[in-house]
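Hey Z.,

So I finally got round to the FE2/S2 (inorganic) cluster thing we talked about over coffee. Here's the setup:
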Amino acid sequence: MITSTSADAAPIDVVVRERRCVGVDIDEFTLARPDRGALPAWEPGAHIDLLLPDELVRQYSLCSDPADLSAYRIAVLREPRGRGGSVRAHETLKVGAPISIRPPRNHFPLVRALGYVFVAGGIGITPMLSLVAAAQRRGRPWRMIYTGRGSASMPYGRELTERYGNSVTLHHSARDGRIDLTADLAGLSPGTAVYACGPTGLIAAAEAACAGLEAVDVFAERFTAPDLRGSDSRAFEVSLAVSGLTLSVPTGRSILEVAEASGVLTLSSCREGNCGTCETGVVSGEVDHRDSVLTPEERAENESMMICVSRCAGERLVLEL
Ligand code: FES
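And the result:
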């Protein structure tokens, strides 16, 4: 089922009230309304769109307390080899600077589960801060595995261990070597929900480690798009039920790109399977889901897909487009 989004919701004007360094090339920004009025409510795991100059739109997880609506906090890793959004954010978001955001959306909510394991890599810690607090409030057993090269690239590590003690394991890969999630996640009880956020390899390792575990679901939030040029990204055909077009989607191009090139009006934002803006209804055909928006249950329903990254698992898809 297509979930409602606020991708086209009216932007909110805010200013940067505070800025502080929380790691190497990682700054935390506190955003508040100019009149200090309350911001929209949000649930743990939510993110906002930052509307940067030159029409750059980037999603950042909220890492403040959902009970405090006087401000939102986000943390941004400056990535010079990225797509430009994080560098622009570091350049322009000085204290006092105005910026527009879109209201929070949540594709990474805390599901009901008997217990939780949170696996975070580096800046992937940001959505976990509100999620672990929510798990703690629910009184469910939980633990966190937080990995990075070292403490300088692991923001909030010390705060987490000070607050939650042994529930949080910090893994410094420069010192401890590569993390072994197969060992760390072995023997999880049925009914455990595993949340993973960080580099693609870390998420893949968490998914692989849980693949054979009974009734253990993995929920992932990725920062980068899956590689559409891989050998598993073969060409297929897509029919658009509304516009009446049938298009060929080659290896290395997304349905979104092919539809846009054919003049079909589509909404998109992150174009990496993270924000949910391009969610499109599926009429028929089996989807190869590659986003980090839909839950395992929603994927099984096969009713919608993120056309910026997901593909066809068979020969042909028919979409409500
Ligand atoms: S544009 Fe963000 S999920 Fe497709």
